[in-house]
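In response to reviewer comment 3 from the previous cycle, which asked for concrete evidence that the modeling workflow produces usable outputs, we include below a single protein chain processed end to end. The sequence was submitted unchanged, and the resulting structure tokens are shown without manual editing.
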Amino acid sequence: MAMQMPFAGLLLMHRLVRISSQRQLGSRFILHKCNRRQTRTFSTAFVNCNENKGDDSDPSPLSSNLTFRQALLSKRRSLSPLERISSLMPQEALSPEVMQLRDEQNQEDPEEEADIHIQEEHEAIPKEEDSETHHASDAAMETDEDKGSIRPTLPGERLLVFGEPLVAEFRKNNRVEFRKMFGLEAGARLNSNWGMILHDNIAGQPAGRFLKTGRGIPILIRRPSLEDYVLYMKRGPAIAYPKDAATMMMMMDVSEGDCVLESGSGSGAMSLFLSRAVGCKGSVLSVEVREDHHKRAVLNYNRWRTAWSLRQREEWPDNVQFHRADLCTASSLIAGQGFNAVALDMVNPHLVLPTVIPHLHTGAVCAVYLANITQVIDLLEGLRCLALPLLCERIIEVPVREWLVAPARQKDGKYCVRKAPVPEGEQREETETEETITEEPAAFGSFPYIARPHSEQMSHTAFLVKLRKCER
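The workflow returned the following structure tokens.
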């Protein structure tokens, strides 16, 4: 009897716990639905608020953390009597009905935890995506800036701009097939047999870059050097070629700060070379008889100075004074001046020597540019008759011989194969080998080379006479 009373009390307690747990489950199910509705309503209102505010209402991390905490608080619940009592009792003493109720509650609790984790992921993932998107956008901006900030190839130079002269060049098999100097203009085109390039696509690029034509053929676009500009600029009379101009300046030993007299401006080639040699501290006095030659020289000189100011960050020195006069009768033009060197490019230079030589410093050089040997003879005969204090040191010409050096090729365009020498007394069967051109270069020394003078040569252009003033 004593044993039956505790068992009856335990059974009664179990029924009471079951009834209270069922009521608790019903109330918790209703609360769970209300919490879900409130959470959805709150999140929807939060999104609508952000949409209405636009870019100015960027949710801070603090507000997002508060939202997550509010969601956790709305999901929390108090422990039921069944959970409290069953947690205090050993598992062997619990009945199957109590174990079933605990399993049902454990199956519902993971759903709530899963909802919380899902909400946590929904709140956390956009932050990661926003950070990744932010870093990606920063990287893209840096990449775009790196691509957009194209730097010139040479220090001190600017990117190509409209108004400056450029040189387009196409080479094939180590030979220049196309070369042209043109002015870069907005809306213009560079036409050639290999395709067309818009000038608008050239502007803003660095010099020395290959640009493809409409046919996909790369053409080198570069700035002209002073030598290129002199050779391809518009000219009236024949110019002093760069090879002759360089030799004449070596003869005269022109350096920075010198004062040089030039007679015969021509197309302005020698004036440009002298202007670079004397620099900002020196000066050049260029005299020309013909008016058309004088205008052409001034125009070419000013165009080069304008192109240089567009190309560099400093201006070309304005150190050349052009005058239209005849030195034979215009002694007042050079009166009171002393010259470190004199350059003459005239048909009859011996006629102006009596006017020029008194203004030339003792020991200085007068370099004379003459087209044919007859003029050289007339000059020497004039020196003999005039008895001027001049010593003829040299009479030379400056030939330039270009060579063509390239790997040997067959008629079909394939490279020739270097063959080992066949020893005497041994016979070897010749086998035909096909050499294909691959992207990877062949080993060093595998191809034979040919070397021969170029078919087009610039041999004679002028005779250069070096006269030095001396006192006896």
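Residues 66 and 376 are 101 Å apart (CA to CA). We consider this sufficient to address the reviewer's concern, and the full set will be provided in the supplementary archive.
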